[in-house]
Amino acid sequence: MAFMKEYVDILRQHGIQPTPQRLAIAAAVLHSAEHPTADDVYEEAREYSTVLSRATVYNTLNLFVEKGLLRMQILKEGTAVFDPNIERHHHFIDDDDGTIIDIPWGWLSVRGRERLAEFDIREMQVVVRGRRKK
Amino acid sequence: MAFMKEYVDILRQHGIQPTPQRLAIAAAVLHSAEHPTADDVYEEAREYSTVLSRATVYNTLNLFVEKGLLRMQILKEGTAVFDPNIERHHHFIDDDDGTIIDIPWGWLSVRGRERLAEFDIREMQVVVRGRRKK
DNA sequence: TCAAGGTTTAGACAAAGTCCAGGAACAGGC
DNA sequence: GCCTGTTCCTGGACTTTGTCTAAACCTTGA
Lengths: 134, 134
Known about the structure:
Two copies of one chain form a homodimer. With 134 residues, chain A is α+β, with helices and mostly antiparallel strands. Chain A is built from four helices and six strands; from the N terminus they run ααααββββββ. Chain A has two domains: 82 residues, Arc Repressor Mutant, subunit A (Orthogonal Bundle), CATH 1.10.10.10; 42 residues. In chain A, a hairpin with a 5-residue loop joins β3 and β4. Chains A and B meet through β1, β5 and β6 of A and β1, β5 and β6 of B. The structure holds a DNA duplex (30 and 30 nucleotides).
């Protein structure tokens, strides 16, 4: 799998030892626009024909989050999703099918932050729910 | 439990037949400022010395949501929380202990909604994460 | 009194995620 | 090359959150 070379570099740059399992997971999640769940990643990474367990998927996704390769987002009921877009941005979630769509940071601006002086803010995002127009 | 009278009226006004279980659950959740989980509600409602099962708590909370008495919010990993504040508002979640705090709608304003023309928006809120200052 | 709805229950089940002990793989030093 | 210690991966047990189902338990009204 020659195209994996790219992921070897990315992992090394983030201080992560590349292994076949981690590369398969990286390939499944890092360029995804679909905000996959851990189970989605498990299914896709297994297609890259590597021996892979569920526990490793969870361990690795958490490692990627810790090392700044991914963000975990709490947007769906019952399950976390992983987002390779680590720039700040907002989210839209479709009520019908749960599809999550990134909204660029610049599209929306939040005024009134100065009223939140009692908090040390780590992140802030607008969460929009509804339906995509057909 | 005379103070339950108040809840009898609230349930009736929302087209819900009052029962001892529903009243215990109403008392546990409707005036809470703590964004309880289903399990929190189960624990508290049982203190009102009613026979009560987990299934009834889930059924009843979902019924309350459907009838507009509560909102379900997806803010914590792994579990839904229930919010008796049905006015629109924003949320702050403390990274340390998971405490959820309501932010009044008027404190923040979101500009740029016109860029979301591709969506039929049902609700929109700002989600802020970080730490409370000591 | 009886039937029909509506309500509650225990327990089975499913899904998401964590934890653990054992084994495999691998890097560095000789 | 060959140890040795560390890192990594695995299956399976376990926990938590939530749903489902069949049976039982009210009410209510005829």
